[in-house]
């Protein structure tokens, strides 16, 4: 099976060679300062690590400075050559708390893409120093080429050497030409190294994106399986037995309608009550599959309806400037509805609080459900919380459950969305 990849941009066009030369001059001027700062943070951090852990702060700053340097270098190369790379993203640990923070630092420290960019920046810094020296030689060569007009027999400096005025013009021209060739040769080398070191970051990111898409697909399949199982269970355990009971009651009423009309009336009333209860259960089941009020009036109104039906008091705090992506609204709605249902069934809570925020700066819809119950909630395969996690993950979102023994229980979800 063959694949067709997009053509890579040319890195040796005249415009890009001039741009690379300018970049190398700037990197040569600033690279030494950046690496001096990195070495300082690393050495001070390692030296002060035994002193009450103060060195850990410097080591954390060292990792952040590494990432900032790699991010800037990747953005610089992308702006110069246009490889079509997404920018580097900081690594995140799935673990929580202080252990999760340490794991995040470790994941960032071992990130291969970051170290590729750092290696490229180091090489570019050295190339920048050579370009600066070659530029100085080029300038002195040009000046020496015109030395017969002003030297008056005196020696002329070229690249730190004193050349007699007799040969200064010839040597100056040769030095200028060679320096210019060296500068553009280094610019071409910069492009080649960028293709070798930086461009593969894009391939790694695309591979990671493909893995994420595959994982999201699996989560979507699991979410649909969990939802189908829930619907089957609700029908089998709730509505179906009630309808069977209605049928049996109506059969008994039919038998007694002539011999005992009063008893038949009682049975009909009982069947009528059971029928209304079955209709209510069917409505709740349909609402769990699709909330029409969500489409008609938005997330705020839909959550208000959920809160009004909840068996425990719910405090709603929904702040959204307008409608967002329908799939994101639906995922957050069902996550909140399922969380409130679990709280009412298992937590013995007396109050729940729901907070929803649209975050346009990150392009996400965020929600938090918290109750003051006994805690101890766990994600079980096929359970409600498992369904929430699968539904959120299928949209590329994140879900975090915090439910220590003794409570409180909180569930946070964040789903990418478009307004």
Description:
- Its EC number is 2.7.13.3.
- This is histidine kinase.
- The chain crosses the membrane at residues 21-42, 48-67, 97-115, 121-146, 167-193.
- Keywords: ATP-binding, Kinase, Membrane, Nucleotide-binding, Phosphoprotein, Transferase, Transmembrane, Transmembrane helix, Two-component regulatory system.
- It is an enzyme of class 2 (transferase).
- The protein has 419 residues and is α+β, with helices and mostly antiparallel strands.
- The chain folds into three domains: 14-216, no CATH class; 224-289, Single alpha-helices involved in coiled-coils or other helix-helix interfaces, CATH 1.20.5; 295-416, Heat Shock Protein 90 (2-Layer Sandwich).
- Helices cover 67% and strands 10% of the residues.
- It contains ten helices and seven strands.
- It has helices spanning 14-48, 54-81, 97-109, 112-145, 165-256, 261-289, 292-297, 299-309, 326-347, 384-394; strands spanning 156-158, 161-163, 314-319, 352-359, 364-371, 398-402, 409-416.
- It has a five-stranded mixed beta sheet with strand order 3-4-5-7-6, covered by helices on one side. Strands 1-2 form a two-stranded antiparallel ribbon.
- Strand 4 (352-359) and strand 5 form a beta hairpin.
- Helix 1 (14-48) runs antiparallel to helix 2 (54-81) and helix 9 (326-347) packs antiparallel against helix 10 (384-394).
- The longest helix is centred in the middle third of the chain and has 92 residues, at 165-256.
- It is elongated.
- The two termini are 39 Å apart.
